Request: fold
Amino acid sequence: MSNANPRTVGIVGLGYVGLPLSGAFEAAGHHVIGFDVDPSKPKKLDQADSYLPHLGQDLFDRLASSSRFQPTCDENALASCDAILVCVPTPVDEDRQPNLTYVQQTFEMIRRVHAPGCLVVLESTTWPGTTREVCLPLLSSGGRTLGKDFFLAFAPEREDPGRDTPIRSIPRLVGGLDPTSGAQAVALYAEVCDEVVPVGSAEVAEAAKLLENTYRAVNIALVNEYKMILERMGIDIHEVVDAASTKPFGFSRFDPGPGLGGHCIPVDPWYFAWAASRAGHPSRFVELAGEINTQMPRHVVNAVASILAQDAKDLDGSSVLVLGVAYKKNVGDVRETPAAPIVEDLQERGAQVQYHDPLVPNFPKMRRHDLGLHSVPLTEQVVQDADVVLIVTDHDAIDFSLVATAAKRVVDTRNVLSEAQVQGVYRRA
Reply:
């Protein structure tokens, strides 16, 4: 595709957010400088080597052959950009405090290299006030002026890995640090989004993104707590959710699970809780939801222990086959996956753990977990040899019919199977 007025757009961070965004701007006819500190990513992109399979090989093939896309680890390449979009991680630390290290390092880099009049947009989810209080001072150092030497806005990513929703069809929120910055950012995103929604400030856009994900986290916590309570009452939570979902108004469906995962939902409520405390009004409701969701992996491990206890077996010395370690169905993403604390807890309690996940061949080292495991083939013998098969992620590519016929015991956290299907002992968790 050609563009009568092509821009040069820099994308910092070539991961789950930045790479599809790079593809969208390239497809719209713009020149894209894709920057990442990981030297393996530009090399793989040059070779059309797909390191994010859920995005499809076509994207990697197109970017590798395009003269409009340049992946690089050289920060100086960003000096030619009309706009730079920041898509870097914003995790929380062990105390659930915001960790803006990657954002700060990125903006310090941009300050060193950006062209005069460059538009800089933060897409990473963060607490309300970050763009103005953290990013603006970094770009302003040395006497530079907002609205003259650079322009600054916040436009949160709204990706949902695993859904085939193109960037163009997702409305884009934009909040500028000043009116001109906002207008420039709106015009930029209009090139790749059918609907751009300007809001009154960067703080509004920051808070809106947190609200979107906190809404999901709180409702998931509610249904998870219902699950644990109804389990003691002998009531099937999944049947309850199915029944409630027949109401055509006033109810949005959320399903229980083994815990939260991904780069947003488990993290963003803690950003809001931190910001609320800073404002002098602690968010007890949000913090409670976070605590409930954090408890779910331990609940799952206790369910595995309880099904073994029915046959006078203990976790210590038992073999557990975990099916799916990605944080959600049909993606190979393990960021904040509940599978990590589940496996770690099982191992600490003496279980011999294997896993099968067709989308995660090797469990990567994480900030808080280093499990050192590799995916094993899902064969009848592997299933039969396991004392318990634990379903954590319900990928379509997993043969659950084999599990139903060959497993001795099944603990199902995703409501994939039913007691009638499983020939061995079955329970939900």
